[in-house]
TrEMBL record:
GO terms under biological process: FMN biosynthetic process; riboflavin biosynthetic process
Organism lineage string: Eukaryota, Fungi, Dikarya, Basidiomycota, Agaricomycotina
Top EC group: transferase
Function: Catalyzes the phosphorylation of riboflavin (vitamin B2) to form flavin mononucleotide (FMN) coenzyme.
Domain (Riboflavin kinase) ranges: 40-182
Pathway membership, UniProt: Cofactor biosynthesis; FMN biosynthesis; FMN from riboflavin (ATP route): step 1/1
Family: Belongs to the flavokinase family.
Chain segments carrying region Disordered: 1-34
UniProt keyword annotations, A-Z: ATP-binding, Flavoprotein, FMN, Kinase, Nucleotide-binding, Transferase
SMART domains assigned: Flavokinase
Composition-biased stretches (Polar residues): 1-10
E.C. numbers: 2.7.1.26
Region forming the signal peptide: none
The protein's name: Riboflavin kinase
Length: 215
């Protein structure tokens, strides 16, 4: 089968698949809203983990700072999803090592986009899950627990000939995510029970249970 822009790649942590090159045709035909009016299988998918330091290029190079999840956080998505860009909601714990560090404003449930894949433009050697929360944080939150509910798929992972083209698509991803989430069946996930549990261990327990239910 010929690889095209519309051919998303199955998630594989062992082998980096080839990524199609992004073209102007793809950019011009992108929809403003993606997904059905109600999240459909395999969504919702729940993930959680402690935020790790990444490559440091999201904010610096792309104007889109991301929170990197540990490798084990990719596992819940590996058997049911594909590489590419996803959308949903996420929340950061204000506490770290038992101490409140972040202000409450930074702990709200927020819209997010997630890149799951190999970042072919940067030629990554391993697959990563990077989440961009649509909020201006007062400080960094490395080491804090993050929990997220993934509700839909925006587009496949692509390669780029320029950083400007990549940034253009990232900004479009964010607009698509916000419009796609502005539907009643999606908005209700802001109040999902996952976000109501305050202890990191409870987040993981809730996430593990929900992952099984989503398959």
């Amino acid at each position: 089968m010929m690889l095209t822009e519309a051919t998303p790649q199955l998630v594989s942590r062992e082998e980096r698949p080839p990524a199609p090159l992004r073209t102007n045709t793809f950019r011009q035909t992108r929809p403003d809203i993606v997904g059905p009016d109600v999240p459909a299988s395999p969504f919702p998918i729940y993930v959680s983990g402690a935020v790790q330091r990444g490559f440091g290029r999201g904010g610096k190079d792309l104007g889109c700072p991301t929170a990197n999840l540990p490798d084990e956080s990719i596992a819940p998505m590996s058997s049911v999803t594909r590489t590419g860009v996803y959308y949903g909601y996420a929340q950061i714990s204000t506490e770290k090592d038992g101490k409140t560090i972040l202000p409450e404003e930074d702990s709200k449930v927020m819209p997010m986009v997630m890149s799951l894949g190999w970042n072919p433009f940067y030629k990554n050697e391993r697959m990563t899950a990077e989440i961009h929360l649509m909020h201006d944080f007062c400080s960094d939150f490395y080491g804090h627990e993050m929990k997220a509910v993934v509700l839909g798929y925006i587009r496949p992972e692509l390669d780029y000939t320029s950083r400007e083209a990549l940034i253009e698509d990232i900004e479009m991803d964010k607009r698509v995510a916000l419009k796609s989430l502005a539907r009643p069946a999606y908005e209700r996930y802001k109040s999902d029970p996952l976000f109501g549990t305050s202890h990191p261990r409870l987040w993981r327990a809730r996430a593990d249970k929900s992952i099984l239910c989503s398959r």
